[in-house]
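Data availability (excerpt). The following record was deposited with the supplementary files.
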Amino acid sequence: MQWGPEAIKAAARLAGLVIDPDTEEAVGVAESEQARLVAINTILDRAYGKPTQYLEHSGDVGIFDAIEEARQIAISRSAECRPEALKPN
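Predicted structure:
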Protein backbone atom coordinates (compact mmCIF):
# COMPACT_ATOMS: atom_id res chain seq x y z
CA MET A 1 0.00 0.00 0.00
CA GLN A 2 1.63 3.23 -1.11
CA TRP A 3 0.37 5.50 1.67
CA GLY A 4 0.94 3.12 4.59
CA PRO A 5 4.58 3.99 5.38
CA GLU A 6 3.89 7.74 5.16
CA ALA A 7 0.88 7.40 7.45
CA ILE A 8 2.98 5.55 10.04
CA LYS A 9 5.69 8.24 9.81
CA ALA A 10 3.06 10.95 10.33
CA ALA A 11 1.64 9.08 13.34
CA ALA A 12 5.16 8.71 14.76
CA ARG A 13 5.71 12.47 14.46
CA LEU A 14 2.38 13.21 16.15
CA ALA A 15 3.22 10.74 18.91
CA GLY A 16 6.52 12.50 19.57
CA LEU A 17 8.65 9.57 18.46
CA VAL A 18 10.61 11.41 15.75
CA ILE A 19 13.67 13.18 17.17
CA ASP A 20 15.63 15.84 15.30
CA PRO A 21 19.27 14.72 15.53
CA ASP A 22 20.55 18.31 15.62
CA THR A 23 18.36 19.57 18.46
CA GLU A 24 17.58 16.19 20.05
CA GLU A 25 13.96 17.32 20.40
CA ALA A 26 10.77 15.73 19.13
CA VAL A 27 9.58 17.06 15.78
CA GLY A 28 5.93 17.62 14.79
CA VAL A 29 4.44 16.52 18.10
CA ALA A 30 0.66 16.86 18.39
CA GLU A 31 -0.42 19.63 20.75
CA SER A 32 -3.02 17.60 22.65
CA GLU A 33 -2.32 14.53 24.72
CA GLN A 34 -5.39 12.88 23.21
CA ALA A 35 -3.98 13.25 19.68
CA ARG A 36 -0.64 11.82 20.81
CA LEU A 37 -2.36 8.82 22.41
CA VAL A 38 -4.41 8.18 19.27
CA ALA A 39 -1.21 8.31 17.20
CA ILE A 40 0.54 5.86 19.54
CA ASN A 41 -2.47 3.53 19.49
CA THR A 42 -2.52 3.66 15.68
CA ILE A 43 1.13 2.63 15.52
CA LEU A 44 0.62 -0.21 18.00
CA ASP A 45 -2.48 -1.48 16.16
CA ARG A 46 -0.57 -1.43 12.88
CA ALA A 47 2.50 -3.14 14.33
CA TYR A 48 0.85 -5.76 16.55
CA GLY A 49 -2.77 -5.86 15.40
CA LYS A 50 -5.82 -4.82 17.32
CA PRO A 51 -6.52 -6.69 20.54
CA THR A 52 -9.04 -9.51 20.45
CA GLN A 53 -12.54 -8.42 21.36
CA TYR A 54 -14.57 -11.12 23.03
CA LEU A 55 -18.31 -11.22 22.50
CA GLU A 56 -20.66 -11.98 25.35
CA HIS A 57 -24.09 -13.44 24.78
CA SER A 58 -26.68 -12.64 27.40
CA GLY A 59 -29.58 -14.65 25.99
CA ASP A 60 -30.82 -17.99 27.27
CA VAL A 61 -30.63 -19.73 23.89
CA GLY A 62 -27.28 -20.85 22.54
CA ILE A 63 -26.59 -21.06 18.81
CA PHE A 64 -26.90 -24.86 18.74
CA ASP A 65 -30.26 -24.69 20.54
CA ALA A 66 -31.50 -22.12 18.03
CA ILE A 67 -30.36 -24.29 15.10
CA GLU A 68 -32.07 -27.36 16.54
CA GLU A 69 -35.29 -25.42 17.13
CA ALA A 70 -35.24 -24.13 13.54
CA ARG A 71 -34.62 -27.68 12.27
CA GLN A 72 -37.57 -29.03 14.26
CA ILE A 73 -39.84 -26.30 12.92
CA ALA A 74 -38.72 -27.07 9.35
CA ILE A 75 -39.38 -30.81 9.87
CA SER A 76 -42.85 -30.20 11.30
CA ARG A 77 -43.77 -27.84 8.46
CA SER A 78 -42.52 -30.25 5.80
CA ALA A 79 -44.57 -33.03 7.41
CA GLU A 80 -47.66 -30.82 7.10
CA CYS A 81 -46.97 -30.43 3.37
CA ARG A 82 -46.63 -34.13 2.52
CA PRO A 83 -48.07 -34.94 -0.89
CA GLU A 84 -50.57 -37.37 0.68
CA ALA A 85 -51.80 -34.59 2.93
CA LEU A 86 -52.65 -32.56 -0.19
CA LYS A 87 -54.87 -35.29 -1.72
CA PRO A 88 -58.64 -34.80 -1.31
CA ASN A 89 -60.39 -37.18 1.11
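Summary of structural features: The mean pLDDT is 82.
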